[in-house]
Each structure stands twice: as C-alpha cells, then as structure tokens.
Write a structure and sequence with these properties.
19% strand; alpha+beta; elongated; 5 strands; Arc Repressor Mutant, subunit A
Length: 117
C-alpha cells in the first residue's frame, strides 16, 4: 500500500492514500466532481488528438522518405509494410492516409498508389 507522510502540529502520521482519496471525494460536492470529470475528459481528448497528430506526422515523414526524385508515386501496400515496422497498425495507416487525402497532402495515383502533392 502507498502511504503519505503528513506533519500535524509536530506529530507524524501515516495516512492510507485510498482513505485520503475517499475522504476528499466525500467532501467534494457534485458540481466540483462534475467539473473534475469534465476536465479529465478534455485532457483525455487532447491526448488522443496529440497521439493522432504524432501518427500523422510519422506517416507523412515515412512517405516523404520513400518518395524519391525518380519515383513520384508509391504503393499503399509498401507504406503499410513500412508503417508496421514503425509500430503503426494497418487500420491506423489507412485512416491516416484517408485524412491526408482529405487534407490534400497526398493524392490517389491509380489503384493502390499515392503521390505527395
């Protein structure tokens, strides 16, 4: 168990963190609790957005590395394989590719191929 160390009027007390949390929740009114949950949801949403943006940047960088001066288009299958080696799942890769197409950062160049704009 985790214990917190507190000094109260010169005395040392150990308080179980679970009991302390329960005490604080009992003292918290419903409005404060709702506000806390709202903040937690907003933070979780921000983290998801940042994670999605990181994946998008990583995939776009990977595509730019794969596109050479001679080869302006690249196979989607090749992108999926390279992305998997970087830890990006196929469904994530396809979703990010769709986002990049909507953002007009890449374009379709025939079935199974894309090109940077």
């Amino acid at each position: 168990m985790i214990f917190h160390y507190f000094l109260f009027s010169g005395e040392k007390q150990f308080v179980n963190s679970a009991l302390l949390t329960e005490y604080r929740l009992q003292k918290m009114d419903q409005t404060s609790f709702d506000d806390l949950l709202k903040i937690q949801r907003m933070m979780a949403s921000k983290i998801m957005d940042e994670s999605s943006m990181d994946t998008k940047i990583k995939l776009l960088s990977l595509i730019r590395e794969m596109v050479t001066g001679k080869n302006k288009q690249i196979s989607v299958e090749h992108i999926i394989i390279e992305a998997q080696s970087e830890g990006i799942q196929e469904y994530e890769t396809m979703a990010v590719l769709d986002e990049l197409k909507r953002d007009r950062m890449i374009i379709d160049k025939g079935e199974g191929f894309i090109s940077l704009t």
